[in-house]
Amino acid sequence: MNSPHTLSHIVIAGGGTAGWVAAAALSRLTNNGETRITLVESEEIRTVGVGEATIPPIAMFLRLLGIDLSEFMRETQATIKLGIEFEGWLREGHRYIHPFGDYGRDINAVRFYQYWLKLRAFGKDVGEIEEYCLAAMAARHQRFAPPDPDPRTVQSSMAYAFHFDAALYAAYLRRYSEARGVRRVEGKIADVTLRSEDGYVSSLKLADGREIEGDLFIDCTGFRALLIGKAMGVPYVDWSHWLPMNSALAVQSERVADPLPYTRSTARPAGWQWTIPLQHRTGNGHVYCSDYMNDEDAGKILLASISGRPLTAPSQLRFTTGRRAEFWSRNVVALGLSSGFMEPLESTSIHFIQAGVTKLIALLPDKRFNPIERDTYNRLSIMQFEQTRDFLILHYKATERTGPFWDYVRNMDIPDTLAQKIELFRSNGRLFRFEDELFGEANWQSVLMGQGIMPERWDPMADALDVNVVAKQVQGIREAVRETALRLPTHQEFLTRFCAAPEPVD
Ligand SMILES: Cc1cc2nc3c(=O)[nH]c(=O)nc-3n(C[C@H](O)[C@H](O)[C@H](O)COP(=O)(O)OP(=O)(O)OC[C@H]3O[C@@H](n4cnc5c(N)ncnc54)[C@H](O)[C@@H]3O)c2cc1C
Known about the structure:
Elements: E1 9-13, H1 17-29, E2 36-41, H2 57-64, H3 69-75, E3 79-81, E4 83-87, E5 95-99, H4 112-121, H5 134-140, E6 161-163, H6 166-179, E7 183-186, E8 189-194, E9 201-206, E10 211-213, E11 216-219, H7 226-231, E12 236-238, E13 247-254, E14 263-268, E15 271-277, E16 281-288, H8 295-304, E17 315-318, E18 322-324, E19 328-329, E20 332-334, E21 340-341, H9 349-362, H10 371-397, H11 404-411, H12 416-428, H13 441-450, H14 467-487, H15 491-499
Parallel strand pairs: 1-2, 1-11, 2-7, 4-14, 11-20
Antiparallel strand pairs: 3-6, 4-5, 8-9, 9-10, 12-18, 13-16, 13-17, 14-15, 15-16, 18-21, 19-20
Helix pairs in contact: 1-6, 1-9, 4-14, 5-14
Bound molecules: flavin-adenine dinucleotide.
The site of flavin-adenine dinucleotide has 36 residues, from helix 1, strand 2, strand 13 and helix 9.
């Protein structure tokens, strides 16, 4: 017998990726037999239709839902993502991979890259830092196999995420959720009713007159933010002075080659372009700042540089980078685009939806809505958003690119938290992961070095071992990573064997 205060009805407003991720997780993980879940969406109002690259925690999230990864990949036309190749971000012609997974292995409790820095300074042939990361080397050779469970093997260090078709992912999670009792209501939300005594949401009014009452409401209405923004007036904290991108054009194109197992991000005069390879097609998009580039030119740049025939007309998206002042206010929790938005440079938005709903489940309120649950949720969410904001700003700040847009971002003031991180790394390569930070030391190291910030000196802790002994170990790791990468099946062989998707039907 549950408590009389247990939530009776959770109402999810919106059925894009956020709505269906929330429905799937809540139906699986709050299975108390007393809480009904209803999702309201309108076929008249389209989803954003983008959001196709992810980061490694998604595999754990899907497993938590009991989803078979092979089935999931087949049904969503998914491919493997081993990281992002940044092309032209430091300067034209330069490229580096921000891979998933670690570089080398710690020696004597000192980070591997510290030895790499030292040996390099001693004039040893240590090659590029990416040669020590299996995901990066596998990406370079277009190969993939899942991590080996034996922690002694190099292959145990493989880390990966997915690219998938956003529409197929939402449809897949809808089937999953409805099979677990989630009720879907088709209808347009016309109004949100607030209780006069405390401003809590009491119901959603649909255009056809129906009314849906609930205890807890999840706002997944996208940029419209019908509950948290429009009805409740929770302010938006604008970060566009640091991340000035505000526009994107997205277009799908025909697949012309075997899909790459990584996302490509190519710097452009006022922004950048993504290439996301799926099994059946390629996703492309140009993210730009309209103060420095008009839509027509942005479209021309995009269409001139995609491979394969365009399958759709480019679709235009507008956004303001930032976050809600509160992600959870009274009895409304915002997930997805209604909660805030950071451009897709490091593919973090879907992760924030997953992280948001799992945090919500961990802090699930009852009908009394103890403010400590809400406050903890907000504190954790704001911290993760701000840490990720800093990580994104780093890509723009540390560059040698020139031109009106790049001059602005290269010279702009940055948050103190980021300035301190850069300074600490620049002095002798030290990095720390604060609290529950999404991007760890290997991620920061990869992007700091990739964007041209090299430590002036290595950590003195790396001096405890003889340089020639270390050189041998480092060389051994380099060879082992290379051999392992070359032994793996190609990415296409892996897809064919593990999860070949059916040919799409037009
Ligand atoms: C250019 C761009 C590229 C991106 N790329 C990535 C990426 O690579 N990786 C990543 O992780 N994320 C990415 N994202 C973010 C990702 O697309 C979103 O986080 C994700 O799609 C979630 O969107 P959503 O569900 O919040 O909103 P939406 O997709 O907009 O869904 C909103 C839902 O609300 C419903 N709705 C709205 N108003 C009403 C109403 N009045 N009545 C009834 N229903 C209503 C709609 O019908 C729809 O179902 C990108 C975003 C943009 C803009």
